[in-house]
C-alpha cells in the first residue's frame, strides 16, 4: 500500500516537472506582449537561466507594489516593451520617479 501511495505522488509530480516557462527570445515582440496581456501576470524566460515576472497592469501586483515598464529581448527586438514588473518602493524612491 505504501508503494502505491509513493508511486501516485511521483506520477502526480511528473507533469509539473516537465513544464517549461515560455521564453521571450523565441517569440516576436508582439507575441511576448500578447502573452503578458492574455495572462495578466506571468513568469517568462528572458534568455538562458534568466527570467522575470511580467504583468499587464498594477492589478496583478501586491497592494503595496507599483509597476514600472519592463523590456525583454525577443526574436525581432532586443528591447521589446512586454508590459510591467511589480516593485516595492523603498525609502529613497520619490513619487513620480517610477
Structure overview:
By secondary structure, the protein is α+β, with helices and mostly antiparallel strands. It has a domain at 24-87. Helices cover 29% and strands 26% of the residues. It has helices at 2-18, 29-39, and strands spanning 41-45, 51-55, 66-72, 80-87. Strand 1 (41-45) and strand 2 form a beta hairpin. The protein starts with a helix and ends in an 11-residue tail after the last strand. Keywords: Signal. Residues 1-18 form the signal peptide.
Number of strands: 4
Biggest sheet, strands in spatial order? 1-2
Helix content: 25-40%
Structural class designation: alpha+beta
Radius of gyration: 18 Å
> How far apart, in Å, are the first and last alpha carbons?
57 Å
What are the defining features of this structure?
98 residues, alpha+beta, two-stranded antiparallel ribbon, two-stranded antiparallel sheet, 2 helices, signal
Task: Briefly summarize what is shown.
The protein has a domain at 24-87.
List the helices and strands and how they pair.
Elements lengths: L1 H17 L10 H11 L1 E5 L5 E5 L10 E7 L7 E8 L11
Antiparallel strand pairs: 1-2, 3-4
